[in-house]
């Protein structure tokens, strides 16, 4: 896998290690002939909440997946908390493709919540949450259990600790999945349309958990969502994405109330019609 | 068809053979399971060499007849590798286990592929190592799919154990031949009683194997969900609930 | 109420290509034809008779003598041919009896269904080696009946795999959607027409790969009849050479290699057939 690490950028571009939580430089990704990310540049500051909107197929999911290392970019560089994700830096500042160990170490700063939850069906809610703290972070079982119960309490599911995913509603599953990701204490959390697979009456409970996270923590959040009301509420910044590029970038007020681009207007018109 | 009940002495002889049959079954099952899991995982390795080695083994193990493999093990291998005192029982188990591993590896491979991709992705997002992903997330779910065909495979191995009588191991089948010789010497013409008895013994063992695997399946199902009828199905046409839960 | 448009218009029907009958698809026809050709040759031509022996004498301290190995290729090949021939003849029994068992297993009457299920399960889960010897002794004990070793092999192997084939047929028949049966009833087709024109044509492509697998499996079980019945097949040949020359490395290794030479291409053909079917189902 490390063999197809992206081509490094010229050294001059990568020398300025800002404090950016996430930085994309010239990231390129194609599936066959289908170019999904075109020379993407993106900076996300620590603690910032960025909502990504855009039409279906525009590459929103791919941005998150590339950052989560579920897809390898074809070119460009990505840094997380100032450290390169796909490259290792030599003493002279030169970049070479990173090994699995390096990627794993940087990846520990990132967590992700999926559209279809991806809970482990053979484990209870609590076991789902405890897995990474025990196996990855070396916590004792009792520490992990205490943490898991605390997080379940936080997402309002304390009394469902021993239920398996098959026994939970969609909204409950997604709240467990959020708790599972929180348990790894990531600096950056990615949310990919986490309410899209839910029945409408279950969306609220998940959004309110997201709101809590946004309010209390210093966690950097990247959210893909079609919930515009929610976006306006929690976002520091909204990115309008189209055809693998950032079409507009601004405050929720600017993008949602007063879009400049025609395609943004069309997109928002279509979304708000519902 | 005079008598379906054999004499006590004959049953005692059969019991001795049964013990050999069961230990061959046990050893080859053990080896077969280890090979199935390791080669099944190797078949999915990202390393081409590892994949290739696994494929060659699988093709070899499935392509060769188990009786011929048994004869090679018993007669050719000891001479080629220069050990005269090798245990026949272990060599026989090795042959049957190698055979089972070839089929088992393909079952394991198919079952791993049937676990939804989202499961692996979630475990990457939790930063599990590749081994931990396999150990805690993928294999436990693949196990549910592996079990039924593995039950059948185990019964095939049970049937295969009868072959060891041909390389002079005193298993159940060999004892039957001995008893038959004794019968012929005593002018007993009826063969039905003896063979119905021994076929019944094999049949009952096979049913026990079936039962054990059923129990294991049910125990796993209970882990997946305590509510019957709400089990996440893996592979196959996923139900809406499974899609959401998976 | 209102006149419905004529059921999905003709233009929507897939044009040509995709919906050819299975026997017009070269990817499936070629393996089937090859198997049929092999069947015909094997069924009609017997292996030349003769003892399995060689005049080459290998050095005592040689673990593996190349010259000796080459000299036993021909007799082993003759044995392999006999094994393959018996397998193929047995499989004709398998194909027919398997279908009969499958139909009995699906019978509406419990008095038929349950005994059929028991017999199938019983034969399937007991060793074929025991069945070989049982049948041989049984035949020997009955006055006036005499069967040769090859005939016993063919009968027992054929019946043994018929129990496997019956399950394959059953799965194939069950794979035809219920709606097809209901449509046949709605069209008032006779049971015979329903089976021959609706069910069997749809079931066959799904069953073929499984049957192919069982043919390969039967080929692997056939050599057992050498040591126990005296059928002059490949294992018998190897054992005879061993008895003659006191060499046991070359005969068995070569028997294994020769076996792979037949079973690997056979398995490859079956997999091609399988891939075809999988593609068709998507
Ligand atoms: N694994 C993949 N293989 C091939 N094409 C893909 C894959 N994943 C995504 N795509 C394509 O990439 C494009 C962007 O997909 P995605 O990032 O999921 O968009 P969005 O989340 O904005 O709807 C789409 O055209 C999609 O078909
Ligand atoms: Mg998406």
Helix content of chain B: over 70%
Helix content of chain A: 25-40%
Q: Treating each run of at least 4 consecutive H or I residues as one helix, how many helices of chain B?
A: 9
Number of helices of chain A: 10
Report the oligomer: heterotrimer
Work out the strand percent of chain B: under 5%
CATH architectural category of chain B: Orthogonal Bundle
What is the strand content of chain A? Answer: 15-25%
The parts of chain A where pLDDT drops under 50 for at least 5 residues are 9-18
- Total beta strands of chain B: 0
From the helix content, strand content and strand pairing of chain A, which structural class follows? Answer: alpha/beta
Based on CA atoms alone, the radius of gyration of chain B comes out at 22 Å
Can you lay out the helices and strands and say which pair or pack?
The complex is a heterotrimer of chains A (274), B (246) and C (282).
Chain A lengths: L10 H4 L7 E10 L2 E11 L4 E5 L6 H8 L7 E6 L2 E2 L2 E3 L5 E3 L2 H8 L2 E4 L11 H11 L5 H14 L15 H13 L5 E5 L7 H17 L3 E5 L3 H7 L2 E6 L2 E6 L1 H6 L4 H11 L2
Helix pairs in contact in A: 4-5, 4-6, 5-6, 6-7
Chain B lengths: L7 H35 L5 H16 L2 H15 L7 H27 L2 H9 L4 H32 L10 H14 L6 H33 L15 H6 L1
Helix pairs in contact in B: 1-4, 1-6, 1-7, 2-4, 3-4, 4-6, 5-6, 6-8
Chain C lengths: L25 H19 L21 H6 L1 H33 L4 H15 L3 H14 L7 H26 L3 H9 L4 H31 L3 H5 L4 H12 L3 H33 L1
């Amino acid at each position: 896998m490390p063999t197809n690490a992206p081509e490094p950028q010229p050294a001059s571009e990568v020398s300025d290690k800002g404090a950016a939580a996430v930085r994309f430089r010239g990231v390129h990704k194609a599936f066959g002939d289908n170019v999904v990310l075109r020379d993407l540049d993106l900076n996300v500051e620590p603690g910032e909440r960025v909502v990504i909107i855009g039409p279906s197929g525009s590459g929103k999911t791919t941005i998150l997946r590339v950052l989560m290392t579920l897809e390898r970019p074809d070119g460009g560089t990505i840094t997380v908390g100032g450290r390169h994700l796909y490259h290792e830096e030599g003493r002279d500042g030169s970049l070479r493709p990173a090994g699995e160990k390096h990627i794993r170490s940087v990846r520990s700063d990132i967590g992700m919540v999926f559209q279809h939850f991806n809970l482990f069906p053979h484990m209870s809610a609590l076991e789902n949450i405890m897995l990474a703290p025990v196996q990855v972070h070396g916590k004792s079982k009792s520490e992990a259990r205490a943490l898991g119960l605390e997080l379940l309490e936080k997402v309002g599911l304390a009394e469902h600790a021993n239920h398996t995913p098959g026994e939970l509603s969609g909204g409950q599953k997604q709240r467990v999945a959020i708790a599972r990701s929180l348990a790894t204490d990531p600096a950056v959390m990615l949310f990919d349309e986490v309410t899209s697979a839910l029945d409408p009456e279950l969306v609220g409970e998940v959004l309110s958990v997201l709101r809590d996270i946004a309010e209390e923590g210093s966690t950097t959040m990247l959210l893909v969502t079609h919930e515009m009301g929610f976006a306006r509420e929690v976002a520091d910044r909204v990115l309008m994405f189209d055809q693998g590029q950032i079409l507009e970038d601004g405050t929720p007020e600017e993008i949602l109330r007063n879009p400049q681009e025609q395609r943004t207007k069309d997109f928002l018109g279509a979304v708000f019609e519902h | 068809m005079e008598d379906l009940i054999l004499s006590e002495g004959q049953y005692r002889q059969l019991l001795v053979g049964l013990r050999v049959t069961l230990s061959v079954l046990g050893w080859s099952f053990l080896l077969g399971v280890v090979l199935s899991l390791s080669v099944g995982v190797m078949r999915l390795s990202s390393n081409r060499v590892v994949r290739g080695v696994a494929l060659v083994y699988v093709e070899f193990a499935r392509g060769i007849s188990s009786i011929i493999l048994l004869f090679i093990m018993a007669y050719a291998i000891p001479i080629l590798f220069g050990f005269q005192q090798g245990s026949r029982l272990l060599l026989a188990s090795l042959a049957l286990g190698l055979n089972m591993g070839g089929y088992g590896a393909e079952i394991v491979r198919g079952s791993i592929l049937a676990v939804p991709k989202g499961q692996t992705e979630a475990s990457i997002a939790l930063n599990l190592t590749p081994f931990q992903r396999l150990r805690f997330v993928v294999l436990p779910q693949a196990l549910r799919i592996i079990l039924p065909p593995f039950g059948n495979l185990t019964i095939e191995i049970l049937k295969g154990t009868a072959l060891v009588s041909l390389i002079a191991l005193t298993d159940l089948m060999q004892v039957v031949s001995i008893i038959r010789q004794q019968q012929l010497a005593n002018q007993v013409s009826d063969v039905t009683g003896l063979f119905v008895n021994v076929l019944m013994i094999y049949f009952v063992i096979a049913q026990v194997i079936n039962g054990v695997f059923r129990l294991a399946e049910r125990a796993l199902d209970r882990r997946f969900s305590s509510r019957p009828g709400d089990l996440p199905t893996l592979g196959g046409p996923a139900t809406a609930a499974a899609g959401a839960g998976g | 109420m209102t006149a419905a448009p004529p059921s999905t218009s003709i233009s929507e029907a897939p044009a040509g290509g995709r919906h050819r009958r299975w026997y017009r698809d070269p990817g499936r026809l070629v393996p089937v034809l090859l198997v049929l050709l092999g069947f015909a040759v094997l069924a009609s031509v017997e292996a030349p008779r003769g003892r399995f022996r060689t005049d080459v004498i290998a050095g005592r301290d040689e673990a593996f003598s190349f010259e000796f190995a080459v000299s036993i290729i021909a007799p082993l090949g003759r044995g392999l041919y006999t094994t393959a021939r018996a397998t193929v003849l047995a499989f004709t029994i398998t194909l027919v009896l398997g279908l009969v068992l499958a139909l009995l297993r699906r019978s509406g009457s419990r008095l038929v269904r349950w005994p059929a299920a028991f017999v199938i399960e019983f034969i399937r889960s007991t060793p074929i080696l025991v069945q070989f010897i049982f049948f041989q002794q049984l035949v020997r004990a009955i006055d006036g009946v005499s069967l040769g070793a090859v005939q016993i092999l063919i009968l027992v192997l054929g019946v043994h795999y018929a129990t496997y084939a019956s399950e394959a047929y059953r799965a194939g028949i069950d794979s035809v959607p219920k709606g097809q049966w209901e449509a046949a009833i709605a069209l008032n087709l006779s049971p015979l027409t329903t089976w021959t024109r609706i069910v069997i044509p749809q079931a066959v492509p799904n069953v073929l790969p499984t049957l192919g697998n069982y043919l390969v499996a039967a080929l692997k079980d056939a050599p057992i009849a050498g040591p126990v019945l005296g059928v002059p097949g490949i294992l018998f040949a190897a054992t005879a050479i061993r008895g003659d020359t006191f060499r046991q490395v070359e005969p068995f290794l070569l028997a294994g290699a020769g076996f792979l030479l037949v079973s690997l291409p056979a398995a490859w053909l079956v997999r091609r057939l399988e891939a075809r079917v999988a593609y068709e189902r998507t």
